[in-house]
């Protein structure tokens, strides 16, 4: 389960950065490019984000996280590069 969380954390962080970069590059009036590029990336990021949150709750006990640690782990999912930090600092035994 921990290996899956580590993979999900990295994949969620990458999808977040790719989505953010594409949002900056695509002009708002280009709806065709939005439908072809941003929608699938956004959908993948959403699925990975939900997986990250659920897996964090599931491995909380095995990693001996307090509620403060869980809060930090969940908060990091909202920040660019946050999941990379969590994967290195908080996840052990993988």
Automatic annotation (TrEMBL):
Keywords: Cell membrane, Membrane, Transmembrane, Transmembrane helix. The keyword Cell membrane applies. Residues 3-91 form the DUF3817 domain. The chain crosses the membrane at residues 7-25, 37-58, 70-86. InterPro entries: DUF3817_TM (IPR023845). It is a multi-pass membrane protein. It is found in: Cell membrane. This is DUF3817 domain-containing protein. It comes from Flavobacterium chungnamense.
């Amino acid at each position: 389960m921990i290996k899956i969380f580590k993979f999900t954390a990295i994949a969620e962080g990458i999808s977040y950065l790719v989505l953010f970069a594409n949002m900056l590059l695509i002009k708002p009036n280009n709806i065709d490019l939005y439908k072809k590029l941003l929608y699938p990336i956004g959908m993948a990021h959403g699925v990975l984000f939900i997986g990250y949150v659920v897996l964090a709750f599931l491995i909380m006990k095995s990693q001996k996280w307090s509620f403060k640690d869980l809060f930090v782990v969940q908060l990091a999912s909202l920040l660019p590069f946050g999941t990379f930090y969590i994967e290195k600092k908080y996840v052990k035994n993988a």
